């Protein structure tokens, strides 16, 4: 809706704690490490920090598999460290958003341990089915024996047979991440209890992991086998997802002034209106449409070029589709995605394309989410060999592919894995040109990108023309220019093959955004429909000769300009 609130005016910063800063030199980032970098975040100017999971967990999916929702992973620190982090943020007028991962738990969570043993009241806390182990060969993993044909999002069947209980349990992700049974009111009550426990510790909101997956279709019917993820039509935006979230809103969220962002793979603008529209239970949603633009239609790992037409069409649809209805959560990369420079920009024009994409992110209608390292233009990683990857999704994919007859060795799929692996986003934050990028004094848990000698915080802060200083200026600009936050969005030059341009308008103030998405030098001509009396260049990533106005100019590779129009 169009109401003004703090979270619409906020720039969010996502921290992946394992890779942010290691305070005790064991090779793993931790909470005291983040505390030491609070002034860094304050200097950058961000308003809200979203922390990916720091709870006790066996780390099968690096924290998205939670063993205890009310405790901090030992490697990351203690509750006291967490409180110091929260207070340090609040003292600096920053807010803290925690990750809520409640579609599934770890298989080491007490609830699951009890559910396997059919201990009440936990017997129905998860989704158990008998299947037909007698079918086919009698092997419980014979596909005919499984309760249905659903795939896990990490590949392979979504069912694992539990010897102890003699039944299969559903897991939309790894076998170590069993799905909770949201139909059971006691499960929902326990989730609300966890939420209140954190909200009462004065957090400022939740990012909710795959929250549109919590409701599975009645009877768990077989899915269309031609879908990219078989079964997904039966668990993405399932029949009761919105209803459960409404209940959560009524019972918990409405009592607190917090922000909620649902991570929602597979939602359309129409779905988003239900979740985050006028009467929607949540504030914002992460959609994935722009993340699909370079993925093959049948195989997400079969990467192809994305096109500016599709990119512009997608963003325009979300900008106009939520206008007056809801609020966009804007991102170009996160801990699950390749680095934006390597994907939507150009490593050969690293600084230019990083700053151009940053300009885009901060001048759309919605709240920008900056992912750690983005503000210094970190890029994908030239992983030396298969053995350097650690992410479960990547490892499962490699395993699966190596079983195929047409794949001889890792290098046959090396390009796709190097481009698409989530590990690209998870290598240590590059603080300086010291060994291990100044992240740790020990062997880090995941390779450091060798470009750290050039791309690092210390050198970026020393260089006024760096990506870092551009982010800082851009964030300041957004704080001072309500038109960039609240203004209407209108695309200009809708068919231009190289330029993405748009106008934002708030009452009598306009902003003109002109972005060259490639390395050519196209000419920009302001459409005659855009009238103005005066124009001021608000920000640009190249020097601009002062008298040059917004009506027409030649762009340089990845150039970005924002003009204020009166
Ligand atoms: O990600 C959800 C999700 O859809 C991922 O499968 C994502 O699309 C994929 O990794 C892209 O390569 C969330 C978390 O952000 C992710 O880190 C977790 O692994 C996942 O949920 C399970 O909790």
Summarize it.
The protein is of the alpha/beta class. Helices cover 26% and strands 16% of the residues.
Rg calc: 24 Å
Overall shape: it is globular
- Give the overall average pLDDT: 97
CATH class term of the largest domain: Alpha Beta
Mind summarizing the main beta sheet? 8 strands, parallel, barrel
Helix/strand class: alpha/beta
Q: Distance between the terminal alpha carbons, to the nearest Å?
A: 25 Å
What ligands can be seen in this structure? 1-O-alpha-D-glucopyranosyl-D-fructose
Put simply, the count of helices is: 16
How many strand segments?
20
The CATH homologous superfamily of the largest domain corresponds to Glycosidases
Overall domain count? 3
Q: What do we call the CATH topology of the largest domain?
A: TIM Barrel
Estimated helix fraction: 25-40%
CATH architecture of the largest domain: Alpha-Beta Barrel
Unreliable stretches (pLDDT < 50, length at least 5) are none
């Amino acid at each position: 809706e169009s109401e003004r609130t703090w979270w619409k005016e906020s720039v969010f910063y996502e921290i992946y704690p394992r890779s942010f800063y290691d305070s005790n030199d064991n090779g793993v980032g931790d909470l005291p490490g983040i505390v030491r970098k609070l002034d860094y975040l304050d200097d950058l100017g961000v308003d809200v920090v979203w922390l990916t999971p720091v709870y006790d967990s066996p780390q099968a999916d690096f924290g998205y598999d939670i063993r205890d929702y009310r405790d901090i992973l030992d490697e990351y620190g203690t509750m006291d460290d967490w409180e110091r982090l929260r207070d340090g943020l609040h003292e600096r007028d920053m807010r803290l958003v925690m990750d809520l991962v409640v579609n599934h738990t770890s298989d080491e969570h007490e609830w699951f341990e009890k559910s396997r043993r059919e201990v009440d009241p936990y017997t129905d806390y998860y989704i158990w089915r008998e299947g037909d182990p007698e079918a086919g060969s009698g092997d419980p993993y014979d596909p005919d024996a499984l309760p249905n044909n659903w795939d896990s999002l990490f590949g392979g069947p979504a069912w694992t047979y539990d010897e102890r209980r003699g039944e299969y349990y559903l897991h939309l992700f790894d076998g170590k991440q069993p799905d909770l049974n949201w139909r059971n009111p006691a499960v929902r009550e326990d989730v609300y209890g966890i939420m209140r426990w954190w909200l009462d510790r004065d957090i400022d909101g939740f990012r909710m992991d795959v929250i549109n997956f919590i409701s599975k279709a009645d009877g768990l019917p077989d899915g269309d086998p031609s879908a990219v993820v078989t079964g997904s039509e039966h668990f993405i935006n399932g029949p009761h997802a919105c209803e459960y979230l409404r209940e959560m809103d009524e019972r918990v969220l409405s009592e607190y002034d917090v922000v909620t962002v649902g991570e929602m793979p597979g939602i359309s603008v129409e779905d988003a209106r239900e979740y985050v529209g006028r009467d929607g239970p949540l504030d914002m949603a992460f959609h994935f449409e722009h993340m699909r633009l370079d993925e093959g239609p049948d195989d997400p790992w079969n990467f192809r070029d994305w096109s500016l037409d599709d990119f512009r069409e997608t963003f325009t649809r979300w900008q106009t589709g939520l206008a007056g209805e809801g609020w966009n959560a804007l991102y170009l990369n996160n801990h699950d995605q390749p680095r934006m420079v390597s994907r939507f920009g150009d490593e050969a024009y690293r600084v230019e394309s990083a700053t151009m994409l940053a300009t885009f992110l901060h001048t759309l209608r919605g709240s920008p989410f900056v992912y750690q390292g983005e503000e210094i233009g970190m890029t994908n990683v030239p992983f030396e060999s298969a053995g350097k990857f650690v992410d479960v999704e990547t490892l499962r994919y490699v395993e699966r592919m190596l079983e195929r007859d047409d794949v001889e060795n890792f290098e046959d799929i090396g390009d796709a894995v190097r481009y698409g692996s989530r590990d690209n986003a998870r290598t240590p934050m590059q603080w300086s040109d010291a060994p291990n990028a100044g992240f740790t004094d020990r062997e880090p848990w995941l390779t450091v990108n060798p470009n750290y000698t050039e791309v690092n915080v210390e050198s970026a802060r020393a260089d006024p023309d760096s990506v870092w200083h551009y982010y800082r200026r851009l964030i300041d600009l957004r704080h001072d220019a309500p038109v960039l936050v609240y203004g209407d969005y209108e695309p200009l030059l809708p068919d231009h093959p190289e330029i993405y341009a748009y106008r934002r308008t708030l009452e009598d103030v306009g902003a003109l955004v002109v972005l060259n998405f490639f390395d050519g030098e196209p000419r920009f001509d302001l459409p005659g429909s855009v009238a103005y009396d005066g124009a001021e260049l608000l920000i640009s990533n190249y020097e601009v000769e002062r008298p040059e106005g917004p009506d027409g100019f030649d762009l340089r590779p990845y150039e970005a300009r924002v003009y204020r129009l009166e």
